[in-house]
Amino acid sequence: MSKVKTPRFHISKRGIIPRRQTWLIRGAAIVLALILCAIITTMMTGLNPVKVYTTIFEGNFSTSRRIWVLMQNIAILLAISLAMAPAYKMRFWNIGGEGQVLVGCLATAACMIVIGDKVPNAVLIIIMLIAAVAAGAVWAFIPAFFKAKFNTNETLFTLMMNYVGLQLVAYYVIVWEVPKGSGKIGIINQATQAGWLPQIGSYKYLLNILVVAVITVLMYIYMNYTKQGYEIAVVGESENTARYVGINVGKVIMRTLILSGAICGLTGFLLVAGTNHTVTTTLAGGRGFTAVMVAWMGKFNPVAMIFASFLIAFLEQGASEISTMYSLNQSFSDILTGIIIFFIIGSEFFINYKLNFNKTGEKEAQ
Amino acid sequence: MFDLVSFIPRAVSQSIPLLFGSTGETITEKSGNLNLGIPGIMYVGAMSGVIGAFFYEQACKNSGSSLNTFIAILIPLVCSIIGSALMGLLYCFLTVTLRANQNVTGLAMTTFGVGFGNFFGGSLIKLTGSDVPSIALSATSACFSRTLPGAKSTGAFGKLILSYGFLAYAAIIIAFIAAYILKSTRVGLHLRAVGENPATADAAGINVTKYKYVSTIIGSMIAGLGGLYYVMDYTSGVWSNDGFGDRGWLAIALVIFTIWRPNISVFASILFGGLYILYLYIPTGTNLAIKEIYKMLPYIVTIIVLIIISIRNKKENQPPASLGLPYFREDR
After folding, report:
1. Could you tell me if residue A195 is left (phi over 0), alpha (psi between -120 and 50 degrees) or otherwise beta?
2. Burial class, B225, CB count within 10 angstroms (exposed 0-12 / middle 13-18 / buried 19+)
3. Which tens digits make up the pLDDT trace of B309-328?
4. Phi and psi, residue A309, nearest 5°
5. Element (H, E) at A10
């Protein structure tokens, strides 16, 4: 007389479930995460939970300047995420966004410093743009080349490339530091404004935002309606299938990563020429890593990624407002971001799998 | 003249956090989990220890009693281990039980962990309402960094071999034990089987989930100790935000550099530690910029190793075959 232990439940894969339902599950996860965030904030600051969210809203929307800053942050984060999306769809785990953006920043700044006063402004900006895009593309191409030729682990390779890029920036920051010994470059071409992107009307960030909007549309078309986008999807689903139907997998990997790196480089260009007019090692500010999460949260769909980057940028700015009000550390927003992402990551399980509860007592062996 | 007697101890103390981190990450990766949360876990390990020590020091100060060495070491140690174990548990729950993407989970853990460390590092005093100007746990640190007897009296030998706190020796011992277990025991064999091919391991009756959980949590605990060593010994108990820097990523680089062998890591970490501080010893004159290039070296070397092992394609030098992939029994 032995009792066979029956598991309480077992897990099975779901078929395709309606898209409305998947977004419902994700939405529920976000709401749960926001509630937990509010509870934690209340514990830290003694603020009542409703006040937490009004503060976060005020931090983002109370003045028009804040709204512009929010839009700018969304745009930059979205741009890097868009760069990541095609690579991930192909299951190429590029976590080198940080480095690719930084070398783009560096190339832009280098042009501004070295030839800033030698060529007309319009020509200069074109040269800067080309340099930044090329730098980012090269930075992504190197790991892609080795992945395609020798199957070198791309996650670890791109990760290392981040710090090579970072140290390269650190090197040039000291080479070009102004004044000597300060350890930073300061605003480049402050007097002549050579190489600064023009401002549309009185809106400082509008041009950046428009550029990113255009990239978003183009990326949507590229991923969904072109042959290359389709090839990416096939390689991502199954490399063997791709080979079987005659897709040159190595070529697709390299081509996609050049595109991915180029958009990162372009983002670096926007950061330096359009926003900060200087270069520091923290200019990318970890957004290369955050972008990975945004791209993944948006399921590599450019439209969904807009919402994902909005959510992250919104929380970051709001948490920073709370931190300032209560003289707490600015890293508070990282904790909240982490929690939200944990919940969204967890919710994916309920989209892809379902729990089947076994009726107890049914399978008791006699 | 290159001063080896002063260079080596500094390289070693620089290497210990890397060694802890890489040993922990190697154990984790052997189970097929690519835990990119290690940098965050090391921050959490450090900060949990700091919080424990902070409360203990405050309690001692308020009651006027002096610190008990044993308790002063035990509390931060236990706090640190619990903190990083919880992080490991979270990682496992998300990636093993919920089968989430490992890269995204790891990066989220790093964001969270670094944020956790910096937030409490910057706000602990404000939150607890204490009246100290900064977190400086010098009394606790003195317990942690106590050297072996004879460190001062035996000259160069003492300085090179005996002059470290107990966690440094622990790091080396743990690395050798981990190497032994991975290479020469049944548990190690099973663990490697899980990392190489979980489906086969499962068919052979190995509990894949259990192995993944246990190895990742133990790996996290070990990595967290690296953070604890850094704050309690290396910086003498002074917490500064982002002070730990990119050492967590360097630890992951070290795992590749040592081709997943903790015993090599003992020496390789000293090499990395040396490269990290080499610029202090190379006469650069007025050219300060060049030191940033030296800091690039560990990463370049790692990339080269990564490329070479993939080109040579020798079976025993590869990353675990299922590294980064989730395992679902019904998914064949």
Report:
1. left
2. buried
3. 888 877 777 888 888 888 88
4. -70, -30
5. strand A9-13
C-alpha torsion angle, residues B146, B148, B152, B156 (rounded to 10): -120
Contact A345 B104 (CB under 8 A): yes
Distance from the first to the final alpha carbon of chain B: 62
- Pick A13's closest partner by Cβ from B241, B307, B330: B330
Q: How many whole angstroms separate alpha carbon B97 and alpha carbon A352?
A: 13
pLDDT in tens, chain A (366 residues): 455 666 777 777 777 778 788 888 888 998 999 889 888 888 877 777 788 888 888 888 888 888 998 999 999 999 999 999 999 999 888 889 999 999 999 999 999 888 888 888 889 999 999 999 999 999 999 999 999 998 888 888 998 899 999 999 999 988 888 777 777 888 888 877 778 888 777 777 888 899 999 999 999 999 999 999 999 999 988 888 899 988 999 999 999 999 999 999 999 999 998 888 888 888 888 888 899 889 988 888 888 899 999 988 998 888 888 888 877 777 888 888 889 889 988 888 888 888 777 765 444 444
Residue spans per domain, chain B: 4-149+158-317
DSSP assignment, residue A197? P
Amino acid identity, position A331: S
Domain ranges of chain A: 76-297
B94 in contact with chain A, both atoms CB, cutoff 8 A = yes
Q: Smallest Cα–Cα separation from A219: which of A81, A70, A99?
A: A81
Our CA-based measurement puts residue B162 at a distance from the nearest CA of chain A, in whole angstroms, of: 33
Give the separation between CA B238 and CA A99, rounded to whole angstroms. 30
Contact call for residues B242 and A149 (beta carbons, < 8 A): no
Which CATH code for domain B4-149+158-317? 1.10.3470
Q: How far is CA A221 from CA A173, A207, A249, A260, B178, in A?
A: 38, 21, 21, 15, 51
Q: ∠ at Cα A51 (A46, A57), nearest 5°?
A: 130
Minimum CA–CA partner of A162 in chain B: B299
Find the CB nearest B122 among A166, A329, A338. A329
Q: Is the pTM of this model over 0.90?
A: no
